[in-house]
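Hi,

Apologies if this is the wrong queue. I'm a grad student, and the batch job for FMN reductase from Spelaeicoccus albus produced an output file that my downstream script rejects. I'm not sure whether the problem is my script or the file. Here is the sequence I used:
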Amino acid sequence: MTTKLDSAPATSTGGPGGAIPRRALRIAVVNGSPSEKSKTMGLVDVVLQTLAGMLADEDITIEQTRVDVYRLGPAFTGAHEREVIAPEIEDTLRQVEQADLLIAATPVFRGSYTGQFKHFFDLVDQYALANKPVLLAATGGGEHHALVLEHALRPLFGFFQALTLPVAVFASSSDFDGTTLLTPRVYGRIEMAITDVIGLLIARATVG
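Support response: The file is valid. Your script probably expects a header line. Output copied below for reference.
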């Protein structure tokens, strides 16, 4: 369901006083793709690698929670109200709600995000994402699908009063070799998106 990875140890070597706790940046990825291996997660992997590179000199560890909505099972797909949801789904929702940065990523189907992606956010608390930085990412068959970022994803997170990053990221099928992102232009857009908010993310990191 959800995997949580630490990119670095939780402590760093201090002086005579011993180990000093690192600051931690909690990142949640909600992956709307129904595929085991997908271009969508190929794009997200580059986002995470770029962010890790920008934080390399900041002594901040990245704690990553990845939610693949297609793996959540009947307890998720059959849930209609948060109040009666299964405990494991509640835990997943809370990890996303408590993250310092949310990466919301989906392939484009019929001009919009996937159904299970939307269902996940139907269960998120209405105010839990207020002022939370959200990076919007999407993949599709052609460049015309990029409109999903502004006409579907941004309004969705506007409802939550989230702080969507000014620069969103889209990659089409021609930007990939399999699930590996190749196009320099997309790499550049990812760098631009993160550069805009790197100071905010560093400020949001807390002592673990």
